[in-house]
Specification:
A hairpin with a 5-residue loop joins strand 12 and strand 13. This protein is of the alpha/beta class. The chain has 3 domains: 49 residues, 434 Repressor (Amino-terminal Domain) (Orthogonal Bundle), CATH 1.10.260; 129 residues, 3-Layer(aba) Sandwich (Rossmann fold), CATH 3.40.50.2300; 164 residues, Rossmann fold (3-Layer(aba) Sandwich), CATH 3.40.50.2300. Strands 7-6-8-9-10-13-12 form a 7-stranded mixed sheet, sandwiched between helices. Strands 2-1-3-4-5-11 form a 6-stranded parallel sheet, sandwiched between helices. The chain contains 13 helices and 13 strands. The N and C termini lie far apart (96 Å).
C-alpha cells in the first residue's frame, strides 16, 4: 500500500489540491450557504436566518447588509423586501388656483399610487399671498421630506435652510429657490423657455411693432427667469420688436383683461405680440376678442403663453393663441419622488433630478416653426394648427 508523505498529495495540480478534492472552478460553482452570506455581510448565521425568514429584531443596517450579500452571492431563494420604517413626504404648494397646479397635484396622486404602502405622500396648499404662512408651514412640517413650490421670500428661504440643517431633505419644484441649501430642483429651465418664446415671436412677427409681457410676479424665480430670457431673446433675435410693457398681474383675471384691452385700444401703440408667463391666458384671450369686436384692431396679435390646458387648447384651436409652451407635471412629480426615495435608500438607482431641458435648443433651420416640438425630457411646444380638442 503506497505511503502518503506528509505535506504531499497523491496527484497534485497547480493549486496543490488532491485529485479527489474540488477544483477551483468546482468551488466557484458551489451553491452559496448561509455561512457564506454571514461572512460577506459581517454578521452571524443566526442574524442571516432571522433576516431571510423575516423574524425581525434586526437593525435596518444589518438587514441591508444581509440582503446585499445574499444578492451578490446569488443565494438561490426569493429574498424578502428590506425592513423599512414608514416614509412621509409632504408636497407643499403655494398656488392652488392655477390650472397647472391642478395637473401637478393629479400627477403626484398618480405617482404616489404606484408606491409601496409604507410611503405616504400628502399634498397641502397654502395662501401664496401670505408668505409668512408658507414659511411657518415649512418649519412646522413633521414629514421626513418636503417638496416645495413657493415664492422666493426671505421667510421661505430661511425655513428651507432650517429644515435642511435639521436633516430634512427639501426638493424645490417648478420654481427654484437657488439661494437655499435645497437638496435638488425639479422643473424646466425657465430662462430658456423665455428665450424660446422670444425666438418664435421674432420669427413669426410679420411687421415691426411693440410687444407686451404679462407675468404673475417676480417673487417667483420661474417668472423672473422667463421674462429675463424673453427680453434677452428679443434683443438677440429681432430688433424690430420693442418691449413696451412688463405687467405683474399676479394672475388677476379682471385686472389683466382691462390692462390688455387698454393697450390694444390705444391708437399710438402697434401691439404685434403678447407673451404671458403666468396663468391669465383666458383674460388675455377675452381682451383680444373684445378688441376685435370693437374694431380697435383688425387682426389678432401673436399670443404665446404657457401650460396646455382645456382653455389654452381651445384658444389654440380658434387661433386666439399662437403657441403654448407646456411642461410635463407627471415627469416632475416622478423625478421629485424618485430623488427622495433614493435619498432614503428605497431604490438602488435613479436619475438625479435636473432641469428639464427647454426646447430653445431647436436649431434654426429654414423652417423652424414645426407644428409640434417635443423634447425627450417632457417639455412641449404646440402651435395652434396642431391642436385638436
Amino acid at each position: 500500500m503506497p505511503t502518503r508523505l506528509k505535506g504531499c498529495s497523491a496527484a497534485s495540480g497547480e493549486n496543490g489540491e488532491t485529485g479527489a478534492g474540488r477544483s477551483g472552478t468546482d468551488r466557484k460553482r458551489r451553491k452559496p450557504r448561509l455561512a457564506d452570506v454571514a461572512k460577506l455581510a459581517g454578521v452571524g448565521i443566526a442574524t442571516v436566518d432571522r433576516v431571510l425568514n423575516e423574524r425581525g429584531h434586526v437593525s435596518a443596517d444589518k438587514v441591508r447588509k444581509v440582503l446585499d450579500a445574499a444578492a451578490e452571492l446569488e443565494l438561490p431563494r426569493i429574498l424578502p423586501p428590506p425592513y423599512r420604517r414608514g416614509l412621509r413626504v409632504e408636497v407643499l404648494i403655494a398656488r392652488r388656483e392655477s390650472e397647472f397646479i391642478w395637473r401637478l397635484g393629479a400627477a403626484f396622486r398618480r405617482v404616489a399610487g404606484t408606491l409601496d404602502r409604507s410611503i405616504i405622500v400628502v399634498q397641502n396648499y397654502v395662501n401664496e399671498e401670505r408668505p409668512d404662512e408658507v414659511a411657518k408651514r415649512i418649519r412646522s412640517s413633521q414629514s421626513d421630506a418636503l417638496v416645495v413650490f413657493g415664492k422666493e421670500e426671505a421667510g421661505v428661504i430661511e425655513s428651507v435652510a432650517a429644515k435642511t440643517s435639521a436633516g430634512v431633505p427639501v426638493v424645490t419644484l417648478v420654481s427654484d429657490l437657488p439661494t437655499t441649501p435645497r437638496a435638488a430642483y425639479v422643473g424646466i429651465d425657465h430662462y430658456r423657455a423665455g428665450r424660446t418664446a422670444a425666438f418664435f415671436m421674432a420669427g413669426m412677427a410679420e411687421k415691426p411693432g411693440s410687444v407686451i409681457v404679462v407675468c404673475h410676479s417676480f417673487d417667483y424665480r420661474a417668472h423672473a427667469s422667463r421674462v429675463s430670457g424673453y427680453r434677452e431673446g428679443l434683443d438677440d433675435d429681432n430688433s424690430r420688436l420693442e418691449l413696451a410693457c412688463i405687467h405683474q398681474s399676479r394672475d388677476r383675471q379682471f385686472e389683466t383683461e382691462e390692462m390688455i384691452s387698454e393697450w390694444l385700444a390705444a391708437d399710438d401703440r402697434q401691439i404685434v405680440g403678447i407673451y404671458n408667463t403666468g396663468g391669465a391666458n383666458r383674460a388675455i384671450g377675452r381682451a383680444i376678442g373684445r378688441a376685435i369686436e370693437m374694431g380697435h384692431i383688425n387682426r389678432k396679435p401673436l399670443f404665446i403663453g404657457h401650460e396646455l390646458t382645456v382653455h389654452t387648447s381651445r384658444m389654440l384651436t380658434d387661433r386666439t393663441m399662437t403657441l403654448v409652451i407646456d411642461q410635463n407635471p407627471d415627469l416632475q412629480a416622478s423625478r421629485a419622488l424618485d430623488f427622495l426615495l433614493q435619498h432614503f435608500g428605497y431604490v438602488g438607482k435613479c436619475e438625479t433630478p435636473d432641469r428639464v431641458r427647454s426646447p430653445s435648443t431647436v436649431r434654426r433651420t429654414s423652417s423652424p416653426l414645426l407644428p409640434l416640438l417635443r423634447c425627450t425630457s417632457g417639455v412641449q411646444i404646440r402651435r395652434r394648427a396642431a391642436i385638436s380638442v
